[in-house]
């Protein structure tokens, strides 16, 4: 009744992509950062210039374009006082950063693609001064740290994107550039974009851990107090960034954070759906990055407490298989007849877990299920 190892690998890959947020390469798996930072776009461009809008924006088959007079050339084959047509996200009134992203080798303007980004003097200075994309990541992040939550919305968003797309280890190395006082304020500041709070929670945890490592108990306590207060604050379970707050707690408190999460009722069958998803995301982060301070067996045990929570049962089963946490084989098999009756994803996860598990108990459970419902079992293992 066992499936091939190829099926198991395929099942794990497919369900992990579908059910979980990948965090292996992101500093902030809690932020949903998309796009490319300005410095990366700048360095990938064949030409960079500063232009001034000289005409109205027009919609050309769904692409909005506008004319600009080139006022300054930073690099590339663009001429001062040349009038160019550039793609724009919306009408621009005033100056813009021009990025030549197409082929410049032709004799006329139609052979190249230019993108214009609305930019005042502050943003232009920021874009010009930002470190090269190929510079060491921690060095780059130290430069961008000063621009987090800058009054210029465009600059604040870009600086945040740099951190959100960086690798966790690089953020840790650049943590000495992060202002602990500001981070703690941003956790509770109503004006802060809620989507950024997850990263700031994680960052507070990183700064707290660094303070503890160098013996700065005052800064560590301030960070921990702010982090735990934000976690304890009353809110519905749809709050953005709560998983990042829990991730920061795991970074700062290590294994003890799991006990705190348990006492707060975040790892239970009746944990609210949103909170359960946040907790599971934080545990995945700990499993990927915090093995030295949060033993992986503790992470797996914590995740297993959510097995019977209907909001996260399927992804928990997938995670337990990925963690090779086979101690829960009986509890996983029981989900086939309980939560699995109403959720085909639970049954698919259970089938995959049982086929991946090397224990004899898994073979018995799989055989019993297949004998009782051969067609349903076959559909679950496809």
List the helices and strands and how they pair.
Layout: H1 5-19, H2 38-44, E1 47-53, E2 58-60, E3 63-75, E4 83-87, E5 95-100, E6 114-118, H3 121-129, H4 137-145, H5 153-165, H6 168-173, H7 180-188, H8 197-213, H9 217-232, H10 242-253, H11 256-263, H12 273-289, H13 296-304, H14 313-322, H15 329-334, H16 344-356, H17 360-372, H18 374-381
Antiparallel strand pairs: 1-3, 1-5, 2-3, 3-4, 5-6
Helix pairs in contact: 1-14, 1-16, 7-8, 7-9, 8-9, 8-10, 9-10, 10-11, 10-12, 12-13, 14-16, 16-17, 16-18, 17-18
How would you characterize the overall build of this protein?
- With 382 residues, the chain is an alpha+beta fold.
- It is 52% helix and 10% strand.
- It has helices at 5-19, 38-44, 121-129, 137-145, 153-165, 168-173, 180-188, 197-213, 217-232, 242-253, 256-263, 273-289, 296-304, 313-322, 329-334, 344-356, 360-372, 374-381; strands at residues 47-53, 58-60, 63-75, 83-87, 95-100, 114-118.
- The longest helix has 17 residues, at 197-213.
- It is globular, with a radius of gyration of 25 Å.
- Mean pLDDT is 90; it is low at 1-9 and 11-25.
